[in-house]
Amino acid sequence: MLIRTPNIYRPQSDTWLLAEALAQAALPRGGQAVDICSGTGALAVRAGLAGARSVTAVDISRAAAATTWLNCRVHGIKAEILYGDFETALATRRFDVLLANPPYVPAHDRVPVRGRARAWHAGHDGRSILDRLCTLAPTLLADYGTALIVHSTVADPDLTITQLRDGGLKAAVVARATIPFGPVMRRCTNHLLASGLIQTGQQYEELVVIRADKTRK
Hints:
The chain has eight helices and seven strands.
């Protein structure tokens, strides 16, 4: 059970696909985990229950950070909760496990600086957060650490993999799921069509989880 405070986007198929990928990853217990763009803290909770020695969660929304703290408390997970942009908040930190379900929906208007839409709105190509995350991930991972990142194929998973590999990580898609468009994707259909990101009449999207491993010191 997760508590969701007002204006916090509820966990959906992408969250649970990433949670399942974490369970299937068979990562060593006792590591340091970070949940980037934590929202309700669902993934921070899963990381703690999976045996992480320490859990850090970060979100740019103050309400999301508070909700993450609450859900970690309810589930008995002792977590460090950080409020702010993940690049600034995490700085030179290192983690054994990095989990991220960032905003990735392409939308025609400007990325919002406040409000509920920050949970999904990621600029015209859906990569306003993903590009930054892929650049920083190699630095955030400890030696032999693992990142698991989920997003829709409308946000170009091939580019995500290329950027992670360019940073020296071993990266590949490890999980997929096809789901019907939800309310957000339906609202963005015109932009997605105009950008060539979906086909006329398309009502489904594919989600992917990308695993990236730091295999060298």
